[in-house]
Each structure stands twice: as C-alpha cells, then as structure tokens.
Amino acid sequence: MAIEDLILFKLEMNDTLNTKIIGQATNYCMDYSCILPNFRRKYSKFENNTFPININIRKCDESLYKFQFRDDNQFESCYIPHCQPSCNKGICISDNLCDCSNTYLTGKNCNEYLKLERNYTLDMSIKIISFLLVLISMISIVTLYIYKNNYIIKGAVIRLRDKNFGICISMNITRNLVKYFLFS
C-alpha cells in the first residue's frame, strides 16, 4: 500500500447560515475501498460537482440483509429492513414495506382485517322471515283487539270436546313452557 492510494475527503459548506452538516464529514478511501458516511441532506446544486472514483461494493449475506438500491440508483446497499410502525404478524421485506400474505390481515402495516363479503341469499331470507313474523304478530294483535269481547279470549281458555292423550300432553307441555319463559 502506498500513500498515493489513500484518498482523504471532507464535506464542507461555504454557506453556514443556510446549511448544516450533521454527522461525520471527514473520511478516507484505502485499499480500493471507501467507507462513506451518512451525510444525506438537501443541498443546493453547484457546478463541477462530480469526481469519478471506481467503487466496488461487495455483496452481503442476503439471508440476513437486503442488497439493493436504497437511496438512489447509483449505489447498492446492504441493510436490514426496518418498518415503522411494525408489521404486526407480517414480515418486513423492505423499509416500511410489509408482506401480509401469510396472515389474515391486510393493509400497509398488516393492521386491517379483510373485508368480508355479504351473503345476499342469507340476508334476503332473514329479511323475508323477519317481515313475515312481524306481519303475523300485527295481524294477531289486530285480531285480538277486534275480538276482545269474545268469551274465549276473555276467559283465555280453549275447551276441547274430544281430549285425547296426545292433546293433553301437548297442552301440558305448552302451558309449562309458557310459565317457564314468563316467570324465569
């Protein structure tokens, strides 16, 4: 290694009122490799702003890190994907990008439930049955109001001429069920 192979650089700004460098601004390149600091900011354009350097970025262990263009289309980077907020039960596949395919959730951060589809046949049948039950109840109420002076309704008794064993059992069960539901 010769001293000619060492390149030192420092990031400086002439306009200190409008710009500020945060982080490490001085670094070097040695043995055909450079460690570039993280000095990403918004800068004003200036003329003759390029200096050609051949840079070879080695591939990284892709089972742990992502190796792809991250900040711009000039440098590929090795990085661990970070998602903020977290991906809940999904997998963070890139910065702020979640894979929700193996979960029952969806959305950018795997935090939304899948929208269920309505079963219109079941909905319609429930509406029809409900309408019929309401209609039967209203007809029963109107009929009871019209025949309120009838002796059967006033006495609340149904007299049967021919009582057999089956009718007696069903009446007894019905009477007991009504008492159970009314007084429990």
TrEMBL record:
Keywords: Membrane, Transmembrane, Transmembrane helix. The chain crosses the membrane at residues 128-147. This is Uncharacterized protein. It comes from Neocallimastix californiae.
